[in-house]
Amino acid sequence: MASDTVKHQILTAAGSVFADHGFKSATVREICKSASVNVAAVNYYFGDKQQLYLETVRLAHRLKTERLPMPKWPDSVSPKEQLHQYVHVMLQRMLGEQDLWQTRLMMREVMRPTDACRSLVEDYFRPQFERLLKIVDQLVPNPVSEEKSHQLAFSVIGQCFFYLAARDTVPMMITEEEMKTHFAIDELANHIANFAFAAISSSGIGGDESGSSRQNNRQQSNTAKAKNVP
Amino acid sequence: MASDTVKHQILTAAGSVFADHGFKSATVREICKSASVNVAAVNYYFGDKQQLYLETVRLAHRLKTERLPMPKWPDSVSPKEQLHQYVHVMLQRMLGEQDLWQTRLMMREVMRPTDACRSLVEDYFRPQFERLLKIVDQLVPNPVSEEKSHQLAFSVIGQCFFYLAARDTVPMMITEEEMKTHFAIDELANHIANFAFAAISSSGIGGDESGSSRQNNRQQSNTAKAKNVP
DNA sequence: AATAGTTTCAAACAGTTGTTTAAACTCGGG
DNA sequence: CCCGAGTTTAAACAACTGTTTGAAACTATT
Q: Which of A105, B68, B109, B219 has its Cβ near the most Cβ atoms within 10 Å?
């Protein structure tokens, strides 16, 4: 049965094309050409384009977690080091050279969710998010509210996600040399982990900051003088 | 001469459709239907779909900066307050209720640049980026290298950008109530500004560690400036 | 070698795409 | 009144879309 290998061939080709063009703009003809199979193969093996897309997204998430599993840390590893490794793995998944289509495809789902997104959120993003929350809660000096934990976690994720989303735009802002030397995965992981660690460590000690009671948002009027003193 | 109003009508309709579906997937038929004009109007007034797209992106950037200009701060305003206002305006631009298509369209250009992107970067993103760099340089306790400034600035932008890109996914991770109370624009601005302030303030004093011990960036000799080699 | 089941293929189908065309309409100035 | 430049319209065009089809090619068991 070569059928399995053909299916896999189509899936990876489809992953690349879907990641590049999105579901609607991607054509089954381009996918089949890239996979070196006949146009009818997609319908023969997957039923229709939509089903192929769903299986492609599932494969993307599966491959990414298999190749780069998030480590299970013993208690001996400091929360700070856990944060650093977490960020590093996340950046590797997002920016790692090979099989970039997998994260690009998932990025598309984040930005414009389709039917494939719900299971992606529950099976992939939420568990990862929960792990980050645990790290954050260990890092924060005083216990904080759940919402604050969420904000802190999103700040970590956001910094990483940015370099995936703006992958082609960031190089337009800085020199090629700088890109290579200071924005490679290792350097970025160091920066983001340190940045987040400093912020989280000092979080919740200065008093309630997010108070800034509901005051109107004309940029003219001074926005919420942050009342806490550094 | 209704021609000007018709052109504007098509432009705003196109902006919305392009922001929703992207250039390729958006159809001129849907645009024209949304603008209540004949299908041929796009070609009559703009030549072709591509030209319409370019003018739409230009309009998006122009409208967004006109409605929400970045304030010019007198020296009396503290850098911390400048940072806060900067973040607040950025979030307002990105998440502000009305005319959301404008930022969604620019977001698409960031993630998958087309021909329209180069001018967008130079005319819109770079000036904004430079202003943020100035704030960051005021906030950092000791002078840091140019690359470090860039990293810090990107960390601020990334946190904001995330809530635009993941606009539909974040609500799947938290409750609706939490979304309304702790992830509205004002609350997010407070959090991100405080988060970034804490991180930047402690940047360049603690010393870096974290895993791969690059003995790299402490205030490097100033600016290994751009040399522009092709 | 013959058969039955599976896989591949070129061709065709119906619908959509951007764009063109030529006729119809609008409306202020002669 | 009609004119004619500017505008709008329905219809048509060729190219492309996902999908179907029926026969050919292939594989494996008898």
A: A105
For domain B1-58, which architecture applies? Orthogonal Bundle (1.10)
pLDDT tens profile B76-110: 999 999 999 999 999 999 998 888 899 999 999 99
Per-residue pLDDT of A57-88, as tens digits, reads 999 999 988 998 999 999 999 999 999 999 99
> Within a 10 A sphere around the Cβ of B89, how many other Cβ atoms?
21
The pLDDT of residue A3: 67
Nucleic strand C near CB of residue A185 (< 7 Å): no
CATH number of A1-57: 1.10.10.60
- Number of CB atoms found within 10 A of residue A78's CB: 12
A221 contacts chain B (CB < 8 A): no
Chain mean pLDDT for chain B: 88
Dihedral through CA A51, CA A57, CA A59, CA A61, nearest 10?
A: -160
Q: How far apart are CA A218 and CA B10, in angstroms?
A: 30
Contact between chains at A110 and B181 (C-beta distance less than 8 A): no
Distances A122 to A23, A78, A93, B162, B169 between C-alpha atoms, Å: 21, 28, 18, 19, 11
B168–chain A nearest CA distance, Å: 7
Average pLDDT, chain A: 89
The secondary structure of chain A in percent helix, strand, coil, rounded to multiples of 5, reads 70, 0, 30
Crossing angle of the two packed helices A146-165 and B185-201, in degrees rounded to 10: 80
Kind plus residue range of the DSSP H or E element containing A57: helix A49-67
Q: Regarding the domain delimited by A68-201, which CATH topology (the fold level of the hierarchy) does it fall under? A: Tetracycline Repressor; domain 2 (1.10.357)
Measured CA to CA, the distance from residue B133 to residue B136 in angstroms comes to 5
CB contact under 8 A, A118 and B183: no
The residue extents of the domains of chain B are 1-58, 68-201
* Closest Cα in chain A, distance from residue B1 (Å): 36
